[in-house]
């Protein structure tokens, strides 16, 4: 049985590399992680350089992503690539997941300050639907495997809600 509102159809598509269910390393608790394609940061030592190219992703509609990720027992993480590279496409999904009670983490190579300075309405709206932002580019010289939920010491965890 569909969980979508009657008559609702969202055909906006996102470029998705992968969806991982039941992750415990991409935010607190049990999470479903959506890895979005496309990343302008191209960090040296990136663990997923395949994510840099937007063409490496598969098209999925917001409705398909909602159906694939909706599980009342797990929360959601947006990762990449760079989720904010697709902010316009992702924000409706974030709003629907949030309205369904999901707790949302988002990883970005941008800092919180950069996102605010960019003042892109789609990025601000996406950020407003998220509970936690892990920000900053991966910096190989600051790599630290002892950190929870981060790859390098410069990255910060912001509890937004």
From TrEMBL:
Cofactor dependence: [4Fe-4S] cluster
Keyword Metal-binding: yes
Keywords of this entry: 4Fe-4S, Iron, Iron-sulfur, Metal-binding, Oxidoreductase, S-adenosyl-L-methionine
Domain of life: Bacteria
Pfam families: Fer4_12
InterPro entries in UniProt: Aldolase_TIM, NrdG, Organic_radical-activating, Radical_activat_CS, rSAM, rSAM_sf
Catalytic reactions on record: glycyl-[protein] + reduced [flavodoxin] + S-adenosyl-L-methionine = glycin-2-yl radical-[protein] + semiquinone [flavodoxin] + 5'-deoxyadenosine + L-methionine + H(+)
PROSITE patterns: RADICAL_ACTIVATING
Entry EC number(s): 1.97.1.-
Gene3D superfamilies: Aldolase class I (3.20.20.70)
Protein task: Activation of anaerobic ribonucleoside-triphosphate reductase under anaerobic conditions by generation of an organic free radical, using S-adenosylmethionine and reduced flavodoxin as cosubstrates to produce 5'-deoxy-adenosine.
Similarity-based family: Belongs to the organic radical-activating enzymes family.
NCBIfam families xref list: NrdG
Name by which UniProt lists this protein: Anaerobic ribonucleoside-triphosphate reductase-activating protein
């Amino acid at each position: 049985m569909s969980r979508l509102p009657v008559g609702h159809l969202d055909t906006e598509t996102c470029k998705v590399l992968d969806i991982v269910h039941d992750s415990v390393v991409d935010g607190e608790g049990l999470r479903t992680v959506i890895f979005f394609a496309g990343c302008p940061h191209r960090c040296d030592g990136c663990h997923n350089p395949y994510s840099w190219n937007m063409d490496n992703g598969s098209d999925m509609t917001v409705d398909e992503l909602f159906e694939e990720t909706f599980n009342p027992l797990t929360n959601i993480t947006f990762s990449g690539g760079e989720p904010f590279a697709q902010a316009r496409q992702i924000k409706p999904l974030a709003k629907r997941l949030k309205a369904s009670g999901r707790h949302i983490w988002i990883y970005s190579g941008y800092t919180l300050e950069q996102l605010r300075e960019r003042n892109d309405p789609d990025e601000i709206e996406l950020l407003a639907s998220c509970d936690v932002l892990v920000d900053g580019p991966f910096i190989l010289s600051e790599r630290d495997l002892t950190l929870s939920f981060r790859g390098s010491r410069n990255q910060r965890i912001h509890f937004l809600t």
